[in-house]
Amino acid sequence: MSRKLDYPSAADDALVKAAQKADMQAFEELVARHRDKIYARAVSMMRNEEEAADLSQEAWVKAWQRLKQFQGEASFVTWMTRIIINLCLDQLRKQKRLRAESIEQLDEELGGVERQMPVVTPNPTERMERGELRQRIDEALGKLSCEHRTVLILHEFEELEYKEIAKRMQCSIGTVMSRLFYARRKIAALLAGWKREELR
Amino acid sequence: MINHETELRLQAYLDGELSPGEAKAVEDFSNSDADARSLFEELKLTKSLLAENELEVRLPESRGFYWSKIQRQIEREEKGQASEQAETAATSWWLRFLAPAAALVALAVLVVVALRAPKGAEALVALDDSHEIETPLEETSSFSFQSEAAGMTVVWVDSHRE
Asked: Would you put residue A127 in left (φ > 0), alpha (ψ -120 to 50) or beta?
């Protein structure tokens, strides 16, 4: 007779194996453990809490349906994060908030705005409280275009390589590099701008 | 002022996207060029600030409520899939039954019409030695009608048969 699983203390791997055998209680435990992270990624990409809640819910339903495909090459939470990222990218494309290459032409027309920004030195966030810094960074992310923000999130928070980002965003590696460069420079400029305002 | 391609190479160096040879070249350049060095430092600082400071967000719903929504949706979709499968199975069963039946009826009508047709009628074909209808009973998936006089062969194939 198989031993009953102690859900709250079981490792993710054990819960996944049980859920793959249609154990819904094990899956519920996985949802409870990782729901905030999955929701947070959706919020960062969509910039809308209601949409993020709906998409994260959809991600969990898809995960349950595809659980048998999960082979454990990456951790369960990494696999789940990929699902929510793909759902968010699909949704952004549907809403036409995410363009493949056209923004590149716009950047070129503007003559490379990111190149006109003065280099930010020294660190504008020195002596800033961590909570405040996080809030400021989030505000700065909100000021980026959808394309620039998405590249930044996929690279800095999800640690995806240029090639992988290009594949997911259906654009070239060169576009990924340009967008990332612009996004970083814009964030640096925004943080420096806020610092200057405070010093006035 | 450094060109855009060099700026992107500095960034690629920072992100570990260059080969060892390319990385060495970019490193040497950034050490010898003040503009490149300061840009590299800015990119590096921004990267580290972002990596360590993503805003923490919590789902504003209780565990039980959130799970109940997911569970309901899973059950709804599973029921939907099950009824869709049942519907498809029923449809294909009817098609399997109806298609050969319809073919038999059509053939019977053709035979009756042909037998009743007045001699000499050109529009209809009377069955005689020059006409042949094949209905292999063990293989009801196809029927053929052949007329030497009319110089025609009609083959009816039941593509729904498995």
From this structure: left
CA-CA-CA-CA torsion sign (B51, A63, A50, A35): negative
User: Hey, what are A183's tokens?
Assistant: 């996004």
pLDDT band with cut points at 50, 70 and 90 for residue B20: very high
Lowest mean pLDDT among A4-8, A25-29, B59-63, B153-157: B153-157
What is the interface pTM, i.e. ipTM, of the complex?
A: 0.84
Domain boundaries, chain A: 7-94, 102-199
pLDDT for the residue A166: 97
Amino acid making up residue A14:
A
Closest CA to A153 of A167, A165, A143: A165
> CATH for A102-199?
1.10.10.10
What's this model's pTM, rounded to 2 decimal places?
0.74
B4 interaction partners in chain A (CB closer than 8 Å): 112, 115
Asked if B15's CB is within 8 angstroms of A162's CB, the reply is yes
> If you count them, how many residues does chain B have?
162
Residue B50 and residue A157: Cβ atoms within 8 Å? yes
DSSP three-state, residue A144:
coil
Lowest mean pLDDT among A42-46, B4-8, B30-34, B77-81: B77-81
CA dihedral A188, A190, A193, A197 (to 10 degrees): -130
Contact B53 A137 (CB under 8 A): yes
CATH class of the domain comprising A7-94: mainly alpha
Contact of A176 with chain B, judged by CB distance below 8 Å, is answered with no
* Closest chain B C-alpha to A94 CA, distance in angstroms: 22
What average pLDDT does chain B have? Answer: 82
Residue B45's pLDDT band (cuts 50, 70, 90): very high
Cis ω for the linkage preceding B100 (within 30 of 0): no
- Counted across chains A and B, CB pairs separated by less than 8 A come out at 110
A142 burial type by CB count under 10 A (0-12 exposed, 13-18 middle, 19+ buried)? exposed
Q: How many CA atoms lie within 13 A of A7 on its CB side?
A: 13
